[in-house]
Structure formats: C-alpha cells, structure tokens
Amino acid sequence: MLGLKKKKLLVFTVVAFALVISSSFLSTAHSSQLQLEQGRVLQYKYARMSTYSQAQQTGEALYQVLTFSQEVLSFQIRTEGLFNYTISYQDGFPVYVDRWEALFYIPPECVSQSLQGNLDWVNRLETRVQQNVADKTGQAVNYTVEAGTFQCLNVTVAIAGAWDSGNLTLLYDVNSGILVYEQWIPEVGDVIVQYLASTELVQVSQQGTLFAVFSVVLSSATLATPVALAVHQTRKVIKNRRDSSQIQLANLVKSGFPKKAFVMAVVGALLSLISVLLPWSQTKGSPTYLPLSLPPLLTQSAWVLPSNITFTLISIAAYAATILAWLGIAIHLYKTKKLTPQIATLSSSIVAFASAALFVLSGWTYSWGLWVVVAGAVLTIMSLAAANIHITIEVEPEESKEAAEEPEENKP
User: Fold this and answer.
1) Which residues touch 403 (CB under 8 Å, ≥6 apart)?
2) Are residues 256 and 360 in the same domain?
3) Is residue 25 part of a domain?
4) What percent of the chain has pLDDT over 90?
5) Are residues 289 and 227 in the same domain?
6) What digits encode the pLDDT tens for the residues 258-299?
7) What was the pLDDT predicted at 261?
8) Where are the alpha helices (DSSP H) in 1-75?
9) What is the CA radius of gyration of the chain?
10) Which of 134-138, 226-230, 322-326 has the lowest mean pLDDT?
C-alpha cells in the first residue's frame, strides 16, 4: 500500500514537472512574438550624443505597462529615474501623448492606415508639451535590432516646438504596433537613439496559475523536512531535558558523522534554503527573483526573471539542492547508514553548483541568492571532507626517545 502511494506521488511529480517545462517552452515562444499587455516589460537600449562636445552616454530603459486598454495606455520608464507617461486612443488612433518621443505604441488600425499613406492622425495628435508637426512621412521597411528583425512602419515627423525642434524617426512593428527603433535629431541639443533590445527581460509576477501552483508545491516540499526536523528535535529536547545532549551526541556519532561535520552540513542546508527565498539578480536596483520563487507570489509586485526553460531549470535545481541537503540530514539523524546521507549531501552540492553555473552563463547580474547558494554548497562539501578525512598523529613514547638519545658507550 505504501509502495503504491509512493508510485502515485512520483507520477504526479513527473507530470507536474513536465507541465512546468512545457509551459516554459510555450512562454518562451509566446514572448518571442511582440504583443502588449498589462504587466509586460520591454527593454530598450539608448545612446545619447552631445552636439557640442561629441560626448556619448549609453544605457538601458525598461518600459513597464501599467494599464492597457483600447482607450488608454499608461506605462513607466525606468532609466536613471522613474518616468510615467500616458497615451490616449480613439477609434484605433492615438489622440494624446505626453510627448511625441513617448509614443511607443500605436494600434493595428493606425498601422494599417499609415501603411496606406494616411498620416492624418499625426496632425491631430495632441501633446502636453507644445510640439507642432511641420512635416511627416511614412513607409514600410525591414529593420534589425538586438531583439530581432522586424517588418516596420517608418514614421518620420519634423517637430517645431517652443522648446524642442528637430526630426523624430519612429519605427513600429507592423504586427504589434510596438516601437522598435527611435531617433531624435534636434536642431539644438543631444541626439538620442534607442532600440528594442529584449522582449522578455523581466515580468512582474504574472506567471500564470500553473507556475503559482508549482511554486507553492516546491516551497512546501522544501520547507517540510527542516520544519519537521525542528519540531521533532525540539519536542525531543523538552522530553529528555536532562540527557538531551547525550542523546544528540549519540545520534551524531552512530552513523559515523563527526559533530563538526554535522554542524557544517546543517549550516550549508540552511543557506541553501535561504537562497531560494532571496533575489538572484537585480533590475534597475530592484531585487529580481527566480521564476518559481515564493516571495513574488506573496508580494504580487516583485520582479521575476523570465519564465523560460533556462531560469525554470535553475529554479528547480536550487529547490532540489535544498531538499537533498535536508534529506541527507534527516537520514543521518534517524538511520544508522553512513553512505546514504553522504550521497544525498554530495548530490545537493553538485546540483547547487550546477544551478549557480547555469545562472552565471545566462549573463545576468548577480545578487544575494547566487552567493548564498554557492556558500551553502561549499559548506556541504566541507562537511563531507571533514566526515571522511581523518588525520592520525602518532606520539612516540618518552622511553623510546630516551633510548634513542642514550650514548653508544653506555649501551651494553
């Protein structure tokens, strides 16, 4: 009966794992096609060149969609600071934008009419800052940026404003209406160029029900063993307060695990547990978590890494390393076997190092989660070394030393 339950649990775990992996593939394929939706984050890279000193400045800007409907689009741009913009639409055309440079999306109807040469909407577009359109052109082009190659609508307008005047070039993806490339050449001031660098940089925690469920399952499985061990050991100490130290020492020695090695293994397992709750990267100074991490589900406002196959595997590996580490400790405490807990501990270290290496290869910036999981893996390796490497020091008896130092003439 127990074996049947284990088989059912194994089948459920494998099916759930397959569903998460397949959904990450679908998420990757889905995000490769541009589309606008609430919570979506797009990464742009920009360059600014002074027309006076020819000095250049480069950086990245994150466009996060706050609200989106057929009538209004509000979004936030993260560069050195935070900037909020609003675009209003009517009958499929933009009718208001805070600034012309902030028009980073136009609806399909607007794209279609513009490709046919109808650019009347350009003259009707109102701005908060006075910017009059002196001239306009539109044409279809193919354009390649870091995010890929797109069939684009090229809208170029000559702006005459009270403060800003110059030529503005905007390239929109014809399938989605999202801005792909922008160039601003003013009569006086800095030349600014920006282009779409990534369509799947980070997403605010809207990963879907499947990821939420699997995140809760993984977190529960990870916390189950250490919590159960803590409760059982606490009750044991309370029940056997007088001789609890002797009992604990007996538990530590019976499987051949020295006390210091056991302490290092526990600290390593704790660090591994903490790592899955910490951010592994940063986005414009904001902590960014793994896709299956628990904190984004609790806050509903945290940044998470892309839900693709790479970061999903990293997240699962980090959880697996923690589960294996605590499983090794549990086997060590309650079983007399010596090899089994050490195999679990070694496996935990290998999986932890693999997750860290895979994250480093992804090219993302590092944060506390990565360093903590590496520290935990190092401690578990050290605990294995301390448990298996024995140094024997032989002390020669004093009598032997005196016999060796005795002069030859005194010997019979």
Assistant:
1) none
2) yes
3) no
4) 24
5) yes
6) 778 888 888 999 999 999 999 998 876 678 888 888 887 777
7) 81
8) 2-31
9) 31
10) 134-138
Burial class (CB in 10 A: 0-12, 13-18, 19+), 154: middle
Q: Is the Cα torsion angle 233, 239, 241, 246 positive or negative in sign?
A: negative
**Calpha distance 153→141 (Å, rounded):** 6
Is 15 within the bounds of a domain? no
Q: List the CATH number of the domain containing 153.
A: 2.40.360
Task: Tell me what the mean pLDDT of segment 222-247 comes to.
Answer: 70
Q: Which of these three, 198, 214, 243, is where a domain ends? A: 198
Do residues 96 and 125 make contact, with C-beta atoms less than 8 angstroms apart? yes
Rounded distance between C-alpha atoms, residue 82 and residue 113, angstroms: 33
Q: Which amino acid is at 155?
A: V
Locus of tokens 């024997």:
392
133 and 236, same domain (yes or no): no
pLDDT at 335: 72
CA neighbours within 13 Å on the CB side: how many for 115?
18
Q: Which domain holds residue 325?
A: 203-388
Render pLDDT for 95-139 as a digit per residue (tens, 0 to 9). 999 888 899 999 999 999 999 888 889 888 888 866 667 677 778
Q: Are residues 219 and 333 in the same domain?
A: yes
Name beta bridge partners: 27: none
Residue 2 lies in a domain: no
Q: What is the DSSP letter of 366?
A: P
Give the Cα separation of 66 and 74 in Å (integer).
6
Beta strand segments in 162-243, E:
165-173, 179-186, 190-198, 203-204
Residues 114 and 90 grouped into a single domain: yes
User: Do 227 and 332 have their domain in common?
Assistant: yes
The answer to whether residue 396 is domain-embedded is no
Number of domains in the chain: 2
Which of 150, 330, 354, 352 lies closest to 251 in space, CA to CA?
330
For the chain, the average pLDDT equals 77
Question: 188 and 231 share a domain?
Answer: no
Write the single-letter amino acid at 315: S
Burial category of 34 from C-beta neighbours within 10 Å (exposed 0-12, middle 13-18, buried 19 and up): buried
Same domain, 192 and 265: no
